[in-house]
Amino acid sequence: MTANLGEIGIWQRANSLDAAVAAEVERLGYGTIWIGGSPPADLALAEELLDATSTITVATGIVNMWTADAATVARSYHRVAERHPGRFLLGVGIGHPEAIREYRKPYDTIVAYLDALDEGGVPVEDRMLAALGPKVLALSAERTAGAHPYLTTPEHTREAREILGEGPLLAPEHKVVVETDPARARRIARPAIRTPYLGLVNYRRNLRRLGWTEDDLADGGSDRLVDALGLHGEPQDIAAGVRAHLTAGADHVCVQVLSADGDPLPGYRALAEVLC
């Protein structure tokens, strides 16, 4: 792979990212900024964040195949990569059926989109694929630099590494709350887990595959599930949970800080002392 992700990155939605945030995250020592949600095909925010920094990698997590035309994405990729060689990673994914009215044959759509990126000259080593289930994980190893799973646990990471084998990149996302009071931490984490993810078939299927029950998935998620998907505690406790992904076979973990006031930077500052 061209870009160096480092072991730990941050994952935030576009509305929480700007040039000032990017510059501080780079100073804190994180390796990658992941632009969450469905950034548009022009990749303008990625370019803005790269312009504001000098060493950190920027990745999309993920460009949605249903809403971003592959040919346009490919042209945008070349613009960004030429301006910032070796610092941009294009993450793409299929999204989920509930969000797309004309959602159809997801696997075939992924293959066709990757074919279009090939035609547009986007190198395999500079793109990643959002993947949860075995079939798409295997495809990510064949057609991209590797897999970017979302809303997972180290148990999923261990299984994903077995499917990917040695070599392909594995970069899971994990939500965290820098809060020592469990009840307060769950009040922050549960809404971000419940809506929309516990209502989406692909995430529910993946969690069931990992052994979680319908009772765990009901009513916004059991405390046990919320604690697993939204790590909380002292920074060193959270760091141990994040690093469990690395022990399980991840190359990189992108940490999504959740906070009561919507400002993730204090959490990233606290975690940088033990993660970076």
From TrEMBL:
The Luciferase-like domain, residue ranges: 20-108
GO CC annotation, single: cytosol
Domain of life the protein comes from: Bacteria
A Pfam family matched in the record: Bac_luciferase
GO molecular function: oxidoreductase activity, acting on paired donors, with incorporation or reduction of molecular oxygen
Matches recorded under NCBIfam families: F420_MSMEG_4141 (TIGR03620)
InterPro entries xref list: Bact_Lucif_Oxidored, Lucif-like_OxRdatse_MSMEG_4141, Luciferase-like_dom, Luciferase-like_sf
Protein source organism: Prauserella muralis
Name recorded for this polypeptide: LLM class F420-dependent oxidoreductase
